[in-house]
Amino acid sequence: MYPGISTGRTEKYRYGTMIPIFDEKGQSSISVEALAVAVVDEIEEEKFNKALFTVAY
Hints:
25% of the residues lie in helices and 11% in strands. By secondary structure, the chain is α+β, with helices and mostly antiparallel strands. It has one domain (14-56).
């Protein structure tokens, strides 16, 4: 999570499970806004009920 990344609310993120998600450059990042959207989406949709998950671009 990088506060310096300001993409706004794009809703373009990927879910993962126990393994972090990396892009083609080997980086794993997400903005605070996108993380908030992913958390709210999980609360509403319950894709990972009582399980750990990761999100990144």
